[in-house]
């Protein structure tokens, strides 16, 4: 896959205590996280932030600016 090329993801529903879907999860591989600079070489995660871009229909996950 080329850099910055989209990769299909599956949203996995998670149910809350009331039995209804309350959130979704996605799986991101260790190599992908490491290549994106979101975890260290030893696998320690850095602090990250989530940005919701409603205008462009995107969710962006990135390392906190202070890291």
Question: How would you describe what is shown here?
Answer:
- With 67 residues, the protein is mainly beta.
- It contains 1 helix and 4 strands.
- The longest helix has 6 residues, at 30-35.
- It starts with 11 loop residues before the first strand and ends with a strand.
- The relative contact order is 0.14.
**What average pLDDT do the residues reach?**
91
| Biggest sheet overview | 2 strands, antiparallel
For the terminal residues, how far apart are their CA atoms? 28 Å
Radius of gyration computed on alpha carbons: 14 Å
Given as residue ranges, the uncertain stretches (5+ residues, pLDDT < 50) are: none
Oligomer: single chain
Secondary structure tally, helices: 1
Strand order of the largest sheet: 1-2
Strand content: 25-35%
Q: Topology as H/E string?
A: EEHEE
**How many beta-strand runs?**
4
Q: What is the share of helical residues? A: under 10%
| Structure class | mainly beta
Outline type: globular
């Amino acid at each position: 896959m080329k850099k910055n090329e989209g990769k299909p993801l599956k949203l996995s529903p998670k149910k809350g205590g009331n039995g209804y879907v309350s959130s979704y999860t996605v799986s991101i591989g260790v190599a992908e996280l490491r290549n994106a600079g979101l975890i260290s070489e030893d696998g320690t995660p850095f602090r990250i932030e989530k940005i919701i871009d409603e205008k462009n229909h995107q969710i962006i996950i990135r390392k906190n600016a202070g890291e």
